[in-house]
């Protein structure tokens, strides 16, 4: 009878434990009451427990035993975990092979960090139109076959981010095709010229996969450059689909409104990577976030966080100004420099300029992979140093008063210096290193004597006295003297009349989606079905550097004269002019250019 009762109790306990909602526990006597009852029951532990209390104790033990058996036989599935992206910590996790793995969505910015970041980028009084520009620009290639290798711009403002990234993308597409799976030279994409492979201009043959890999590699290179090659920080949104984990978090990011630092803090997540392989994997998996309408802003934030917000402020001459300039929301020179050389310095000259009293201005401290030229130099507003003017690869971001575009060559030989250019570059570097005028092009007499000694220029006493008579030396006057000075005295007087001759092709890409001036071609459809007012443009230019340099020609190099235009000797092709030509002349003085169709636009 007792065994039958125990079986019934066990069945009851098992039935109760398997219920979805546990039964309401039976009410027990107050502790004081039960305690007093046990004490009054006698001092023997074996006989002090009442039959009712013993029955309840056995029932609880049976229920516990039954529940334990059930857990072993029927493991309960864990309840679904709700998305709590804000609580996900940043982590650098490694698998068995030591490769870093992403940690979900990553870490969110603190309130203080988000306030600092938002103020640094946009300032405290940013307009909604500027915010709309920066939250509606993805990093996407043009669907137009003629400009398929170019990143298309739909909104004004983020062009500085797109142009800098475009320059690195072209570096991989043109000079590192094997790294991105592009067709090998044997397949005709590259041709052999002067014992080296030179890319052809069959840009439409580049596959989507190759373009995406070039983009991912470019992003990784820029971010690690900003992180001193030690780390890269990738910023994404809480609303994106990570294809590497097939994890869909809410919906794809689609131009989420950001009107304040608190909005940024809510949607932004970031992860830190210390190896390029892990960074590449993460970028590949989250590329849809950067292709979304917030892509350009996310990449800029990634670069800023990779550099570090405190380091960014230390790079700048005036950290109180926003990086996105008012009132039109253009990317500042600091943004362009950060993405080109890894430092958010505001100037384009080489090194630092000492102003005295412990004050100095910061410029470009090292040679770069891709360079920068600006229309402002042709207008004498600044002087681009050799670090940006002569990059490792013949690719330049072109800056105008309000827009950034890209200039590039397919043959790296355009960077090779002939005898005249090599000598000019040597003397110019020595001169610029002592130029404290901010690119004004003049130095003191004392500094001039240092330049003469360093570059082994031996001027006759009369010439030396003449050039030092005013108390300072202007570059144009010094160069005129060197052009007339014999080579055995350190000059470059040319008796053949052929020194400096150079002819080559170069390409210009403007990614802004505007209308075709001639109305040719089909209008390019953009996201949402809207039709832009202009298409991205890729223009091929033929550049010719005149063969003979004389003092008279050098001093009249600003604009081609009417006699030069009519000269068939110096100008074998019709000379055309556009503001881009003025930019090109800051790199190749007195270059003349020609092209087919409409003039290339840098605005």
TrEMBL record:
Where do the segments described as Disordered lie? Answer: 1-57
Residues covered by the Deubiquitinating enzyme MINDY-3/4 conserved domain: 118-477
Task: Show the PANTHER family listed in the entry.
Answer: UBIQUITIN CARBOXYL-TERMINAL HYDROLASE MINDY-4-RELATED
Task: Please state which protein family the record places this protein in.
Answer: Belongs to the MINDY deubiquitinase family. FAM188 subfamily.
Q: What is this protein called?
A: Ubiquitin carboxyl-terminal hydrolase FAM188A-like
């Amino acid at each position: 009878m007792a065994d039958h009762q125990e079986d019934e109790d066990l069945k009851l306990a098992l039935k109760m434990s398997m219920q979805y909602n546990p039964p309401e526990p039976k009410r027990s006597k107050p502790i004081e009451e039960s305690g007093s009852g046990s004490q009054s029951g006698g001092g023997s532990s074996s006989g002090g427990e009442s039959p009712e209390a013993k029955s309840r104790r056995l029932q609880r033990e049976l229920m516990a035993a039954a529940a334990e058996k059930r857990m072993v036989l029927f493991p309960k599935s864990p309840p679904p975990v709700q998305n709590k992206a804000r609580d996900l910590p940043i982590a650098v996790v490694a698998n068995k092979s030591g490769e870093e793995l992403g940690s979900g969505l990553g870490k969110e910015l603190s309130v203080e960090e988000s306030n600092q970041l938002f103020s640094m980028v946009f300032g405290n009084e940013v307009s909604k139109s500027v915010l709309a520009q920066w939250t509606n620009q993805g990093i996407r290639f043009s669907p137009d076959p003629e400009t398929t290798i170019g990143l298309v711009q739909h909104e004004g403002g983020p062009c500085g981010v797109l142009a800098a990234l475009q320059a690195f993308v072209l570096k991989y597409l043109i000079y590192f095709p094997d790294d991105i799976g592009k067709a090998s030279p044997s397949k005709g994409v590259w041709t052999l010229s002067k014992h080296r492979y030179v890319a052809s201009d069959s840009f439409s043959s580049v596959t989507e996969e190759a373009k995406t890999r070039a983009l991912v590699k470019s992003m990784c290179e820029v971010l690690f450059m900003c992180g001193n090659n030690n780390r890269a920080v990738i910023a994404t949104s809480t609303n994106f689909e990570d294809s590497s984990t097939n994890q869909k978090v809410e919906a794809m990011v689609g131009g989420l409104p950001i009107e304040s630092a608190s909005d940024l803090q809510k949607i932004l997540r970031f992860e830190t990577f210390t190896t390029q392989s892990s960074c590449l994997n993460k970028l590949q998996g989250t590329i849809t976030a950067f292709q979304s309408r917030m892509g350009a802003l996310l990449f800029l934030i990634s670069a800023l966080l990779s550099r570090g917000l405190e380091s960014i402020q230390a790079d700048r001459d005036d950290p109180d100004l926003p990086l996105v300039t008012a009132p039109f929301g253009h990317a500042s020179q600091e943004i362009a420099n950060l993405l080109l050389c890894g430092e958010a310095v505001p100037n384009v000259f080489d090194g630092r300029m000492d102003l005295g009293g412990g004050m100095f201005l910061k410029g470009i401290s090292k040679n770069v992979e891709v360079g920068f030229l600006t229309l402002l130099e042709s207008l004498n507003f600044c002087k681009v140093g050799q670090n940006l003017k002569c990059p490792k690869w013949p690719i330049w971001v072109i800056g105008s008063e309000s827009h950034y575009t890209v200039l590039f060559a397919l043959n790296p030989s355009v960077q090779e210096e002939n005898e005249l250019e090599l000598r000019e570059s040597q003397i110019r570097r020595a001169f610029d290193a002592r130029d404290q005028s901010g690119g004004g092009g003049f130095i003191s007499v004392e500094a001039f004597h240092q330049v003469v000694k360093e570059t082994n220029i031996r001027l006759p006493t009369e010439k030396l006295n003449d050039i030092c008579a005013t108390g300072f030396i202007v570059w144009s006057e010094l160069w005129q003297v060197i052009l007339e000075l014999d080579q055995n005295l350190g000059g470059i007087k040319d008796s053949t009349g052929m020194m400096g001759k150079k002819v080559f092709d170069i390409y210009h890409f403007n990614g802004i989606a505007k209308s075709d001036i001639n109305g040719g071609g089909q209008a390019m459809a953009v996201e949402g079905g809207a039709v832009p007012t202009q298409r991205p443009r890729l223009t091929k230019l033929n550049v010719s550097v005149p063969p003979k340099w004389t003092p008279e020609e050098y001093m009249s190099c600003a604009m081609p004269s009417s006699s030069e235009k009519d000269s068939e000797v110096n100008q074998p092709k019709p000379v055309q002019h556009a503001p881009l030509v003025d930019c090109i002349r800051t790199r190749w003085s007195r270059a003349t250019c020609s092209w087919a169709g409409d003039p290339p636009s840098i605005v």
